[in-house]
Amino acid sequence: MATSPKSPFANLPAPPQAAKKPLSDTRHGITRTDDYAWFRADNWQAMFKDPSILDPEIRKHLEAENAYMEAAMGDTAELQKKLFAEMRGRIKEDDSSVPMKDGPFAYGSLFVTGGEQPHYFRTPRDGGDKQVLLDGDKEASGKDYFRLAGIDHTTDHSKGIWGYDDKGSEYFTLRVRDLTTGDDLDDVLENTAGGGVWAPDGKSFFYTLQDENHRPSKVFHHILGQNQSEDRLVYEEEDPGFFMGVGGSLLDDVIYIDIHDHETSEYRLLSTKDLFAEPKLVAEREEGVEYSMTEGGDVFYILTNEGDAKDFKIVEAPFAAPTKENWKEVVPHVPGRLIISHMAYERHLIWLQRNQGLPQIVIRDRQTGEEHAIAFDEEAYSLGLSGAAEYDSTVIRFTYSSMTTPTQLYDYDMATRERVLLKTQEVPSGHNPDDYVTRRVMAPAHDGELVPVSLLYRKDVALDGSAPCLLYGYGAYGMTIPASFSTNALSLADRGFVYAIAHIRGGKDKGFAWYENGKMENKPNTFKDFIAAADHLVKENFTSYENIIAEGGSAGGMLMGAIANMAPEKFAGIIAAVPFVDVLNTMLDDTLPLTPPEWPEWGNPIDSLEEYQWIAAYSPYDNVAAKPYPPILAISGLTDPRVTYWEPTKWVAKVRELSTGTAPILLKTNMAAGHGGKSGRFQRLEEIAFEYAFAIKVAGKA
């Protein structure tokens, strides 16, 4: 168990004391009283669009918390600057992507020296001068927060839709740009989900609108030149438990309307030959059945778990009649081989799968049926598949990296199997992979399962238990955390840290069952797996309990809150970024943006007593108790629609009230940002430097 060394936090002022305003709520005959419910502003929807209207009492408290945090972290100012300089020094400032060919042009993005935002450009197809289509730094000028949603061009390459969010609230404004002149048209569309899909003639496009509860519930058709209020409603999803997106195909034949929650999906298709027709249903939603579609000329290829294909299979169906009765299996379900995504081109069907915990790209010749996988040498690595922008292409693009190998970008010819290295991530300040070790160890869980843990550390680190360790975890929504290259993590490794990623249940790191066994009633497995990872690292002398700093964000922040309650003695410190810690109250509030779509992940405590009890048993806020908590750093964003600012605010107030220890409980609220923190690439590095400074200070390595 952790000892109690002298605290690195000394001579702090008294922390803010939140007022108690008890509010009681009774569900299923169970009454709970929440002393800090008042932090949830009654006008939160409007405040996300205009933060200046935040209740003054709430603002005063958040500012007091920020002042206390600054007092606690003030002595790390120089360390933060040093960390920031290191991280920035590993980034090629004037970096450019390798343009991807599409018709007469090749499209890409770049950053300029000192710039925070991407610039989108194109060149002639086979090379030539860059034409900057969208200068993100120019558009962001004078704004505290600015996030681009990219730019999508018409089939004839004459115009582009681009979107931006300048509040951090994820309400995007869409504009239309003439790509020849660089001027924006008069069309301005507010409160969208970001992005749109052009009709083939370039005279109109489709987009999703965010409703008053911040849900993309309506698809509209916008004709250039008309007012947004005149846009035609194409489809409205009336079930608040489902999100909706709109997309297009490489052949411009169809508009996809994708309706889904975390375990069920439904597609409706609109032929681009009749833009005013009613979208046609492919397969009616069926609880627990997921599917996604890609066009393959005269057929659709559909990735689905239908028929107990837990790790997914691929079926095909006629383009003219893709309904479920016409589905024909073409890539069978293989238990333990999880198919993650798929793409179709004129001559090839390709898919990204995860087998034995490692990603693979598999390619099938559509005429001969011959298959092959792209081979790699390292025992642990990460892949990204970006495919191609042209349907008749035989060349696809993918990225490869490991925890010690910088990202490599390849073009791969699916017909000749020739692999061409286009670019290797440049680390301007220098990086020698031979100075580091990457390993994957297996931690025994409480029930006998083995939890993979990826490790990065310098070769010269003494593995005698004395090394500090930053242990990262997420474990939700089936998200797999890749063992990829991180220039930022090198700042910890170079200070003697073991940087570790726990691939815990709730992700799909070991297949779909790994996800199922970390959700709903099985959610506690996620928390126990993380603690088991810490135990194993201590047992194997990679670190010791008094040297482990845990880190997680969003749903990983829920993990941080849970392990703080379950095993505070096993962690020297905890970093909880935008932490989803008030799980029960949030899942009981169906007006919040994510609540109804999240019920399949966590449970619906409104309708079910049993599911209420599941959540109540682990919800971090509801299980704070009188015990000595380690130092905690919680980070939130005022306009965050995913994890609302009041969740970490309430949690910090309650932990500080009940903790029997003397460790500081800190809250940093970004007053001009949302879920992802600051938007610029270097602004984001400042936030990472701040988090790492906390970890280094707690570990006594500052």
From TrEMBL:
Gene3D superfamilies for the chain: alpha/beta hydrolase (3.40.50.1820), Prolyl oligopeptidase, N-terminal domain (2.130.10.120)
Pfam families on file: Peptidase_S9, Peptidase_S9_N
GO biological process, one term: proteolysis
Residue stretches making up the Peptidase S9 prolyl oligopeptidase catalytic domain: 484-701
Residue ranges of coiled coil: none
Region (Disordered) location: 1-28
A molecular function GO annotation: serine-type endopeptidase activity
Keyword Protease among UniProt keywords: yes
Family label: Belongs to the peptidase S9A family.
Protein name, as recorded: Oligopeptidase B
